[in-house]
Write a structure and sequence with these properties.
By secondary structure, this protein is α/β, with parallel strands linked by helices. It has seven helices and seven strands; from the N terminus they run E-H-E-H-E-H-E-E-H-E-E-H-H-H. It has two domains: about 140 residues, Rossmann fold; about 50 residues.
Length: about 230
């Protein structure tokens, strides 16, 4: 049977352990072992598992092109690649089946509609609920870890605040002061403590061609946000 591989990479990068290469390799290996041919791949980049079909451009394209591309079904690495939320998963499966396509997962085989077999429906949905529970539990643990690390002054990802920069890669990354930006902050604080207004401070920095981190002009609101970080010190 000719099949299309469907690959989804989550927006939740630290939770999503299965990258596109892992999924693609597993799909091709499963297809070969089961006598199928994967003729096309459709890939979603940065799409959450709780997102419905309205925000799944690759899935929508696969459904639209199935007849023209001559494939009879979709194969995914595991059912959670369709969706992690059981309600969304069932909705998308119904949509795919409605297009006359079969659905396979390398971990469990065919995901059959089986309207006449309540037991198979129950097993599929129970597996979906377990996957959703596992995902939510993992997210909660990661969030707790980030909060602990943040409370201890650690780097938890994202853009570093003005005055700091990130050094290192991955788990070894951490924040260190940026000497140039720290000097600008200290000037802001000193001038403001002496009664100078936010606009005047911004204009002074701009007049001396001291740019923001993005290389743009300062505005009073930016100065205000930076000063607010130190108002209780």
């Amino acid at each position: 049977m000719n099949l299309a591989g469907y690959i989804r990479v989550s927006t939740e990068g630290q939770v999503d352990a299965f990258g596109k290469d892992v999924q693609r390799e597993a799909i091709l290996r499963w297809a070969e072992l089961n006598g199928h041919l994967v003729t096309h791949f459709y890939e979603e980049d940065g799409v959450s598992g709780k997102t419905d079909s309205g925000s799944r451009p690759a899935l929508s394209q696969a459904l639209e092109q199935a007849e023209r591309k001559h494939f009879e079904g979709l194969v995914v690495f595991e059912p959670s690649r369709i969706a992690r939320r059981i309600v969304v998963q069932e909705t998308l499966l119904t949509l795919i089946w409605g297009q006359g396509l079969k659905v396979f997962a390398t971990t469990v085989g065919e995901l059959s509609e089986d309207e006449d077999d309540p037991t198979k429906i129950m097993i599929r949905q129970i597996l979906g609920v377990i996957a959703e529970f596992d995902h939510r539990t993992t997210v909660k643990k990661l969030q707790a870890g980030r909060l602990i690390k943040s409370s201890q002054g650690g780097y938890i990802g994202g853009a570093a605040a003005y005055g700091l920069r990130v050094v290192g890669i991955g788990k070894n990354s951490h924040l260190v002061p940026d000497a140039t930006e720290v000097a600008v902050i200290e000037e802001m604080r000193l001038r403001h403590s002496n009664g100078e207004g936010l606009t005047a401070i911004a204009e002074s920095l701009n007049g001396r061609q001291i740019p923001t981190r993005q290389g743009k002009l300062w505005a009073a609101t930016q100065v205000s946000r930076i000063l607010a970080r130190f108002e209780n010190e």
